[in-house]
Amino acid sequence: MNFTGITRKPAFWIFQVLVFLICSGLALHLYPQAFPVVDLQIKMDRTAALKAAGELLKQNQWAPKEFKQAARFELDEEAQTFIELTGGGSAAFAKVIKEGLYYPYTWKVRNYSEGNMNETIVRFTPKGDLYAFGEKLSENDPGAALKSPEAQTIAEEGARKFGVKLSEYQLVEKSQEIKPSRRIDHSFVYERPNVKLGEGRYRLVLVVAGDHLVRLSHFIKIPDAFLRHYAEMRSSNDTISVVSSAAIAILYFFGGCILGLFFLAKNRWVLWKMPLICAVVVGAFQFLEQLNHLPLIWMDYDTALSSAGFLARHLSSSVAMFVFEVIMLTVSFAAAESLSRRAFPHHPQFWKIWSVRNASSYNILGRTLGGYLGLGFFFLYVVVIYLFGTRCLGWWSPSDTLFHPDVLATYCPWFTSISNSLHAGFWEESLFRAVPLAAAALLGNRFGSRKKWITLGFV
User: Fold this and answer.
1) For 148, phi and psi rounded to 5 degrees?
2) ∠ CA 311-314-316, rounded to 5°
3) Which of 106, 191, 254, 287 shows its CA 20 to 30 Å from the CA of 311?
4) How far is C-alpha 114 from the geometric centre of its chain's CA atoms?
5) Helices (H), 413-458
6) Cβ(71)–Cβ(408) below 8 Å
7) What is the sign of the dihedral through the CA atoms of 95, 98, 101 and 103?
8) Could you give the angle at the alpha carbon of 299 between the alpha carbons of 296 and 304, nearest 5°?
9) pLDDT value at residue 1
């Protein structure tokens, strides 16, 4: 069959466009069934969360007096896992969010100061209402030594002040701890008696340090039996991940790239210049992506360390990662291109595709358009795989939002998509497609049955 001749006929391209449109339409229609989407109304942005938290610190005289801020939009993944695996699935998770009995998605604002262990965490609902706060105090800070009833009165009055309807709760636990400064901290745990989430319980914790309410937070009490069972499940997944990572390193990188380059280099088949240039460009995008996320790293900053030292360590690790990426990408790109050029000598040479002469040819135009038109089929393929897994095999696909507000905390929100796409588009195609298929073709040339080896490479 003269495949080149077929691609020159208008009917072929009309058919490709129709397949693209049909597959894309089916994929979009089936997507919500394969990947549950959370209907989340986010009315507060990061700037508003920082401003509101700062005002609350000043109004309530929470520590520290002079502070810096960092913010993150967080999901309580443990609660989501429990609800979706044992509490009714993604529909139950969506119902929890809609009813507002518990907010798994919150804005978390950290108010901190260098060299000061005292800090305050404030949480807001996606709509912008105060949901929780926690003031961290030193064990040596002075404070009152109240009896439990007095502390409970302060806790409940403070909770009502912040809009908590304590009439919907009942006290289930209480404890106290004497600090080295002789201050007594009291903890009170409340539970909604009439609302349950399977074996889970909606709870509220209030903490009084001395004679001040320093913590108010909501959580879902998850049974220990579920946590142990899920840990066992995760252990199996982690084992599979380790084995697959080892297989990638041994089969693809060392077996395909290193060994392939070793044999090709002896016959001077390897080109290094363009792989190195492309690796530096792709690695530089990854490095810039690390810099782009600098506003988020302060959520994990240890205030006992200097901020300059913390930033320097982050930057040094980013530079080390950049060097590692360049080495890994250079080897992958060189192996992919050199093996492909050796295995498929009649195909267009990769590093020459976008020269002025070749880029303007119908061959390259057809291959480029063909790649984009194939997107619809592969999109549908992924959706069907997940749909089959969740419906027929009992797989779990967690609910998710289509947009994560944390991206707005970066300097350039658009940069993340470009950086990740560039890295995946270059590296994954090189290491997981070009290397094994070209290696299979060369092995077929050596031992016979080239088509069978290539088919095995696809599998």
Assistant:
1) -55, -45
2) 110
3) 106
4) 28
5) 415-429, 435-447, 450-458
6) no
7) positive
8) 130
9) 41
- Written as one letter, the residue type at 362 is Y
- Count of helix runs (H) and strand runs (E) in the chain: 17, 8
Q: What is the pLDDT of residues 58-105, one digit of tens each?
A: 999 999 999 999 999 999 999 999 999 998 889 899 999 999 999 999
Closest by alpha carbon to 49, among 124, 152, 158? 124
Degrees to nearest 5, angle at CA 291 with 285 and 296: 130
Q: How far apart are CA 316 and CA 305, in angstroms?
A: 16
How far from each other are the two terminal CA atoms of the chain, in whole angstroms? 24
Q: Under a CB-based contact definition with an 8 Å cutoff, are residues 191 and 203 in contact? A: yes
Closest CA to 331 of 261, 281, 384, 403: 261
Radius of gyration of the chain measured on its C-alpha atoms: 29
429-444 pLDDT, tens digit per residue, is 999 999 999 999 999 9
Contact partners, residue 128, CB within 8 Å, separation at least 6: 43, 44, 48, 49, 52
Where do we find the tokens 């093996």? 339
CA angle 102, 400, 99 (to 5 degrees): 25
C-alpha distances out from residue 393 to 20, 175, 379, 385, 389, Å: 28, 45, 20, 11, 5
Specify the 3-state DSSP secondary structure of 212: strand
SS3 assignment, position 270: coil
Q: Which of 111, 107, 76, 62 is nearest to 301 (CA)?
A: 111
Look at residue 357 and give its three-state secondary structure. helix
Distance, CA of 209 to CA of 136 (rounded, Å): 10
What distance in Å separates the CA atoms of residue 72 and residue 110, rounded to the nearest whole number? 9
Closest alpha carbon to 261 in 276, 273, 271: 271
Sign of CA dihedral 442, 448, 450, 452: negative
Residue indicated by tokens 């990769």: 350
CA distance 201 to 317: 42
Task: For residue 225, give every residue at least 6 positions away whose Cβ sits within 8 Å of its Cβ, in sequence order, or none.
Answer: 199
132 touches 103 (CB < 8 A): no
List Cβ neighbours of 396 (8 Å cut-off, separation of 6 or more). 84, 85, 390
User: pLDDT-derived band of residue 4, with 50, 70 and 90 as boundaries?
Assistant: low
CA–CA gap between residue 83 and residue 306 (Å, rounded): 40
State the residue for tokens 């260098």.
114
